Hints:
homodimer; alpha/beta; TIM Barrel; Helicase, Ruva Protein, domain 3; 2 domains; 46% helix; aromatic hydrocarbons catabolism (chains A, B); 4-hydroxy-2-oxovalerate aldolase activity (chains A, B); 2-IPM_HCS-like (chains A, B)
Amino acid sequence: MAKITFVDVTLRDGNHTYRHQFTPEIVHATAAALDTAGVDIIEVGHGDGLGGSCLHVGRGPSTDRQLLEAACSAVKRAKVGILLLPGFGLFADLEMAAEVGVSVARIATHCTEADVTEQHLRRAKDLGMFTVGYLISAGMASPEQLAEQAQKLESYGADYVNLAESQGHLVPGEVAARIRAVRQAVKIPIGFHPHNNLGLAIGNILAAVDEGATFIDGSLKGFGGGAGNAQTEVAIAALKRAGHEVEADLFGIMDAADIFAQQVAPQPMPVIDNDSLLMGYANVYGGYIHPVRHAAETYRCDPRALVLRLGERKVVAAQEDVVIEEAQKLSCTSTN
Amino acid sequence: MAKITFVDVTLRDGNHTYRHQFTPEIVHATAAALDTAGVDIIEVGHGDGLGGSCLHVGRGPSTDRQLLEAACSAVKRAKVGILLLPGFGLFADLEMAAEVGVSVARIATHCTEADVTEQHLRRAKDLGMFTVGYLISAGMASPEQLAEQAQKLESYGADYVNLAESQGHLVPGEVAARIRAVRQAVKIPIGFHPHNNLGLAIGNILAAVDEGATFIDGSLKGFGGGAGNAQTEVAIAALKRAGHEVEADLFGIMDAADIFAQQVAPQPMPVIDNDSLLMGYANVYGGYIHPVRHAAETYRCDPRALVLRLGERKVVAAQEDVVIEEAQKLSCTSTN
Lengths: 336, 336
């Protein structure tokens, strides 16, 4: 039975569900409730992390600083954290975060590109922060590849390595194999961030913890990209039921879920619709849904067949040209 | 890797979500889509099975016969099934079902009361039906108890035994232990019917199949009692991803989910709210939520504490007097 550090990402990943429109008021009320419930780390910001607010991925109504100040002023015991994708986020953003009281920095990149996190991990460390190497789309890499990337993150001084299964593609056995490979490769702790596209967010958390993961991500009401994250209040209940130790109180976290839902009403909870299900099945990043729809319409092909093709091509973010290429091919096939 | 027989219960368990108001039109359209998709067995009727339509649990707009005729006239290859709880359902109901073309009869009772299914199982068998012994609230019995009950069902001629984890309380390891115990006790196949109160419907299905379950229940869009069932389209995708063989086609079942959703629009999909989460955590049957709310208000006690007490008391259906007794006790405690 493991002792779990729970990382709630409602106020960061959940911002995707809310089209990045979280306000300082929403952040303050929710962070206070999470803190009262006993959650260990509260991640806050734009869905794409520090510096993410831009026209391309969605502009928020507030600055990163305003959101982080709202969170830091709301907590008594929890740590406030940020996510930073090098490129979106800069050193200056990290410095601002440290200045307002953020003490956890998760530096994120595609699962095979750990190299690009080195400078930011070291800078965050210099600023006195608890630092995390965060591997996006971890279901696109083999256990061996992830083990190698984790070793790099450890060598850059990361305090733990987080596997983010952004597409919700893996089944429990596949998650277990990845956690095991990383555990055998590094001495630092391991975290896991699931998505629910195949309805396995909670099942995969339990499999990850059974293999030694001790940092677990979730979000209230499951708010998050695609089919959403593991629902924090459900994950905490399931972890407790499975005999694991979680600091957060069950009634407290249920209260936090209610408070958050009231703040964002009438926004409904994420569900698994056919789009997110198919993206998870095919292991295609959720952001591709709009380019897929557009290309399928333009080239009159089956969008579902197109998603499967993209999965076979193992597209990563920002390869929208492949969508058009495959749509054209499918279009030819269907008219022949 | 297993070959799975998929049993879709949208048109029976999903009727709970729709307050038992399914019409022959909804049944016909949905059954046709499920049949086209390649689902093996389609269960149809009132949420509480044959004879369930009554003022106490909810009266439907159509007779059992009308719903079953709608389903039987819609299918070309799938079998149509019914659920029958002895007491609600009578021999005459079974005979009517057989007459209109129903070929699968699942005879259900509380997980420790297999005895009460014998007569109905034998009658269904005499009528030439494929018969199933169905153990409700299987998370309230130990693996050993379930093994013993399964042996009884086998001796009554059941073609398979179905463990229905009605409260969504179990974690995958607990499901595996129960399937294993039953597998070691009987020669007939084993089925599993999860609920999603702890977000583990799909994770528990994969655990059950890994231990040898070969009949799996689910419902389109997750419609079903409490936090809902395993979402059929998601379960089929996850089973395929895990390498198992399922006859149903993924795109076909996604189409069926859409067709069903259109039929019942604007009814939203079930989600895991705090009520269903707590009932699952405490292992208390979903039907208790209304008596709990009423008693908590009357006796001014915390409804959540009351649910936990009911879980400790291991209440089964129709013990509403215990709700009042425990509410009174909690009320005294809190005023002292």
